[in-house]
Backbone:
């Protein structure tokens, strides 16, 4: 385990009694709250967390953000939040973004497009306009995609050079099938865009039931090679990650991967990148 407190850049919390989450199925279809996170993460020292929207019904996006603000009153380690925004609305999304920006904890927006049937969904003019609008409200963009959408997402990053973007879950490569290409080459291409960072998160979930540390290592090494410590941040992806791995085990695997890095570089990935990107003051 790191001998210093870490910052988790990717935390989910939900309560189906308060909001509707159409995608939730057992065993995740229950309230999972800060106290549950605390129990699941021991003995890892987690100093601060960034909440990331959880796929609530789209008309409840602002309600979810307000609910998180309430959770943060009892759990001050929730230092920032990334909230859903209907970016495909183009300039019409600005009214929504204005409401988000007024919330103290809001730092970023996310519009998941990993399950959109059209590979070029993110290149629709209105979607591009929505992502381009985010810096006007002090918001970054969490890019949640699958590996097949990487090429289009590179073009999106090119179209939005003034928007700070972080790639969630290293673009969900098909680890279960052992596929490295074209994912690896495209990750290296994406990393050439200076406005793009990457989260080391959600990797075991993509690896199938029989994964090992050696299964995950080549994919993590590509991300490390592509982005380097200054543009990588640790993400736990709890509780979705519990479908595949425990929180302490995920940290142990990353510890092994990062063991050859200097202490400063390890701190960069485990703490400083998220602190800087999400402006955790």
Residues:
């Amino acid at each position: 385990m790191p001998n210093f407190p870490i910052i988790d850049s990717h935390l989910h919390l939900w309560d189906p009694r308060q909001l509707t989450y159409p995608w939730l199925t057992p065993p995740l279809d229950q309230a999972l709250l800060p106290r549950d996170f605390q129990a699941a993460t021991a003995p890892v020292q987690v100093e601060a967390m960034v909440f990331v929207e959880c796929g609530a019904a789209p008309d409840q996006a602002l309600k979810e953000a307000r609910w998180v603000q309430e959770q943060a009153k009892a759990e001050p380690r929730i230092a920032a939040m990334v909230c859903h925004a209907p970016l495909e609305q183009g300039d019409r999304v600005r009214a929504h973004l204005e409401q988000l920006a007024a919330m103290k904890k809001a730092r970023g927006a996310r519009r998941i497009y990993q399950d959109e049937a059209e590979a070029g969904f993110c290149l629709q003019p209105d979607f591009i306009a929505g992502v381009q609008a985010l810096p006007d409200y002090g918001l970054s963009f969490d890019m949640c995609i699958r590996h097949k959408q990487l090429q289009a997402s590179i073009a999106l990053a090119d179209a939005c050079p003034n928007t700070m973007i972080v790639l969630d879950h290293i673009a969900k490569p098909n680890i279960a099938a052992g596929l490295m290409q074209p994912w690896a080459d495209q990750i290296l291409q994406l990393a050439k865009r200076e406005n793009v960072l990457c989260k080391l998160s959600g990797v075991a979930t993509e690896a199938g039931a029989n994964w090992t540390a050696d299964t995950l290592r080549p994919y993590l090494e590509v991300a490390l090679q592509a982005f380097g410590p200054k543009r990588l941040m640790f993400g736990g992806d709890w509780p979705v990650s519990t479908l595949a791995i425990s929180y302490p085990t995920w940290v142990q695997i990353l510890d092994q991967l990062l063991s050859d890095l200097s202490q400063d570089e390890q701190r960069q990935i485990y703490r400083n990148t998220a602190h800087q990107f999400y402006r955790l003051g």
About this structure: The chain has one domain: 6-277.
